[in-house]
Amino acid sequence: MSTAPANAAQLADSADRFAQAMTRDLAAETLELPSFPDIAMRVRRALGDPDVVLDDMVRMVSAEPSLAVRLLQLANSVALNPTGQRVTTLRAAFARIGFNLARSATIAFAMSQMRRAEAWRGLETHFRALWEDSAQLAAVSHAVARRVRGMNADQAMFAGMLNAVGKLFVLIRVSRFPGLLDNPANYAGLQRAWYPHAARSILSGWELPPDVVAAASDFEGAVQSRWGEADLRDVLFAARYIGTLPATAPTPDPAVFSTPPFQRLGLDTGVCADVLAASSTEIASLRAALVD
């Protein structure tokens, strides 16, 4: 996927053709991630079936040993196993983490496998950066949501993990146009402009809950004032900021607490410090379980 250095005219032409291609993609009835492992789609569909039973899920996941290992790692993480009692079977893992977190781990596993596809050779570094960033966001979002009344920490982690979906799609498309990946600022601008649209299209097609889709596709928009209670967008917005603070001596910018997301969530300096101090081990364990 390497390209020769491009001049300004070539970059402009590539960016224009990229925008045209993205517009065509988004106009399609369905949008899917290329090379996305089928196991993730099968597990997602099964977990969306109200009649699914535990035995069905155990059989399905057992057919993919690497995914089974991922679920066991998540079930034995410090965040989900505070007593230190390890589980060694998929049945016990499902019983501990539940179907929602199993779905999160399956999507995480599938996206991590994408970078190994032959079609994307040369993009490993970019894939890894996106992947680690979303795993960090997912782990901190889980920690934040646990400290906000009425928030579902499992859904927050799921939304954080899914934030990579639209960005992966844009990365794949950008790589097809000469020079666009060679300019970090240009690539970052294209990501910001296009990933929310791609994420909404893909995740809506997966029939995920609207609040998860909204948070995963554009949580940065939570900074805008709006009526209503706090939601997952606010959690991810706060988690993104808190995750940038040093765990040993967090000193948040006082101005952040006047932003709509922090106000809706009721977060203050003490809560931010607690998330990082009391949950640092939990965050690290979740992150490790989500990133291979």
Summarize the structure in words.
The protein has a single domain (about 10-290), classed as Hypothetical protein af1432. About 40% of the residues are buried. The protein is mainly α and about 290 residues long. Helix 6 packs antiparallel against helix 7, helix 6 (about 125-145) crosses helix 13 (about 280-290) and helix 9 (about 210-220) packs parallel to helix 10 (about 230-240). It contains 13 helices and no strands.
Order of helices and strands: HHHHHHHHHHHHH
Report strand %.
under 5%
Q: How many DSSP E strands?
A: 0
In total, the number of domains comes to: 1
Distance between the termini: 23 Å
Return the CATH class.
Answer: Mainly Alpha
The overall pLDDT, averaged over residues, is 86
Helix amount: 55-70%
CATH topology assignment: Hypothetical protein af1432
CATH homologous superfamily title: Hypothetical protein af1432
Shape: globular
Radius of gyration: 19 Å
- State the major sheet: none
- Contiguous runs where pLDDT drops below 50 for at least 5 residues: none
CATH architectural category: Orthogonal Bundle
Number of helices: 13
Quaternary state of this entry equals single chain
Instruction: Specify the structural class.
Output: mainly alpha
